[in-house]
Amino acid sequence: MLKLKNIYKTFNAGTINEKVALYDVNLTLNDGDFVTVIGGNGAGKSTLQNVISGAINPDYGTIEINNINITKLPEYKRAKFIGRVFQDPMLGTASDMWIEENLALAYKRGEKRSPLKWMIDSEKEKIFEESLSKLGLSLENRMKSKVRLLSGGQRQAITLLMATIKKPDLLMLDEHTAALDPKTANLVLTLTKEIIEEHNITTLMITHNMRDALTYGNRLIMMDQGKIIFDVSGDAKKKLTVEDLLKKFNQTKDAPSDAMILG
Amino acid sequence: MIGSLLGAIGQGFIWGVMVLGIFITYKILNVSDLTVDGSFATGGAVFAVSLLANIDTSICLLLAMIAGGLCGLITGLLHTKCKIPAILAGILTQLGLYSINLRILGDKANVSISQLSTNITFISKITNLTHTRSGMVLGIVVSIICVLILYFLLGTEFGASIRATGNNETMIRALGVNTDNIKLFGIILSNMLIGLSGAMLVQMNKYADVGMGKGAIVYGLASIVIGEVFFRRFQNFGIKLISSIFGCIVFFIIRAIVIRLGLKANDMQLISAVIVVIALAMPIFKENMAMRNIGKKNNWNNYRKNKDVDEIVEDKMTRINVTESGGGEYA
Question: Residue B324: is its pLDDT beyond 50?
């Protein structure tokens, strides 16, 4: 489904601030994989996502989705394949637009947007209402509220819905619960799991929380210094514990960050 | 008195079309486009010159719009392709346009069209109205058409992506929209309206002047700000469009009053600058006042008396947004 081949990325190459963000990364996701990605700060997790989404161009390597080479496609063209939820709840929604307008924007992800067709009709409204009610946050009664009035958790839930309302080939979650309080984070994660399982969406989820990385998904990837140092799936992943992961981290050159220990 | 009032209202409608253009860039796209002063005069100059070349008036209007759009295209390309900050891109275009406008006018500072028939003389012929009133009719008709077109355009799938680009570029790009093209389109559309407005002003004044666009950007911002004062409570998008034209009318009425009080028309530049400064600084002053009143008796009660709870929540959210976006340009 998603295939990364020999991806290299170095920031500020040739300067004193040179930073190898990705070094010969090879990764193949199968259809329906739900992969969690962990790693310390600066391990290359976010760069990996940005390279896939097109926000950053790699120095070398190829990226394929469904056997289509997307390495040179600009970010907005890759949107056809990829749904994204950001860490910052502000980034995922247009705050001065209504909830239903945001959903209508997402409903057309990667498609042509007609200058003659009204963005919302009663048919779409019904679809949005139904999918909002599945969130269980009673947002279906506030479809004409501006997103600005919602809390961070509600916004992330809506962003999640927006990323998946038109089924993406790949869903990318970039620490999408990191800015939320534990209770809300849990709620959003549960929603994430439900939606992913319901539509069988291939997912790449970055997280700083090791317990979440173990609880969710069928495959786990650990990154360090721009490389994938650990890739485990299926039953082997189910048996994994936080202690195992910590041990793995201690084997790496970098000492684990505080967030890891707290995880 | 009535005469000058009607004149002011007529001017308000004619300039109002320009304000709609500024509204698109400043309010919807969140791009500060300073091309205005140049493209307004370009629209006027192209109209006057093509009218003198015996081209049909309506086609002249169209040419003025296209000329304005081309000005926008240049600013837009500088901004999106060369990544020059929008403000600077606009200033550069505007500066260059001064020379171009002089060329269009045949190296003359102004060109008269007083002997020629225009849309306004046509209206006054069939309705028997004076020149000023006919100008107002033209302004009203064109304003209404522009508001309707914009209202419908911005409600479509494509138009929604324009609004979203101004609101959250990262998000709408992640949803598959080429935000550079959207900005380019928005700036072109904006300057087309500005060129059209310039052409109508030439009809009204019966001459084109190379300096006619001077200060237009500030007039436009002042009009938007004044409109917001009157229509603050309305969230409807169409009302917001109407409010900028309304603001423009109020602006020209104020101008008429100021002139009647003995000030010169040129003083209006200063006055409009002051209006915009006050409007932009007001939220900060209010914030400071509120901070001074924290904890004072009756402060909360007064607050609640004047607003319902929903609005208080919205108020707070707005303030949070403003601080987060680092001041909130023209928020």
Answer: no
- What are A111-127's pLDDT values in tens digits? 999 999 999 999 999 99
In chain B, what are the helix, strand and coil shares in percent, each to the nearest 5?
75, 0, 20
DSSP structure string for A57-107: --SEEEEEETTEE-TTS-HHHHTTTEEEE-SSTTTTS-TTSBHHHHHHHHH
Q: Which fold would CATH assign to domain A2-262?
A: Rossmann fold (3.40.50)
Neighbouring residues of B53: CB distance < 8 A, sequence distance ≥ 6: none
Residues B182 and A157: their CA atoms lie apart, in Å, by 27
> Among A30, A35, A23, A34, which residue's Cα sits nearest to residue A2?
A30
Domain ranges of chain A: 2-262
Q: State the architecture of B2-267 in CATH terms.
A: Orthogonal Bundle (1.10)
Q: Quick check: A117 contacting B, CB < 8 Å?
A: yes
Domain boundaries, chain B: 2-267
- Residue whose pair of structure tokens reads 């050159």 in the numeric block: A253
- Lookup result for tokens 């028939």: B117
Q: What is the ipTM of this complex?
A: 0.89
| Interface A-B: count of C-beta contacts within 8 A | 92
- B331 vs B323: CA distance, rounded Å: 11
Q: Shortest CB distance from A148 goes to which of B163, B171, B321?
A: B321
DSSP class of A139:
G
- Distance between CA B302 and CA B294 in Å, rounded? 12
CA distance B278 to B299: 24
Query: Which of B80, B161, B168, B313 to mutate to probe the A interface, most A CBs <10 Å?
Result: B168
CB contact under 8 A, B173 and A75: yes
Nearest by CB to residue A113, choosing from B155, B161, B170, is B161
Which stretches in chain A have pLDDT values below 50?
263
| 8 A C-beta contact, residue B36 and residue B159 | no
Interface check for A144 against chain B (CB to CB < 8 A): the answer is no
| Short-list B12, B21, B42, B14, CA closest to B211 | B42
**Region label for B54, one of left (φ > 0), alpha (ψ between -120 and 50) or beta (otherwise):** left
Sheet holding A60-65, edge to edge: A19-29, A2-11, A60-65, A68-69
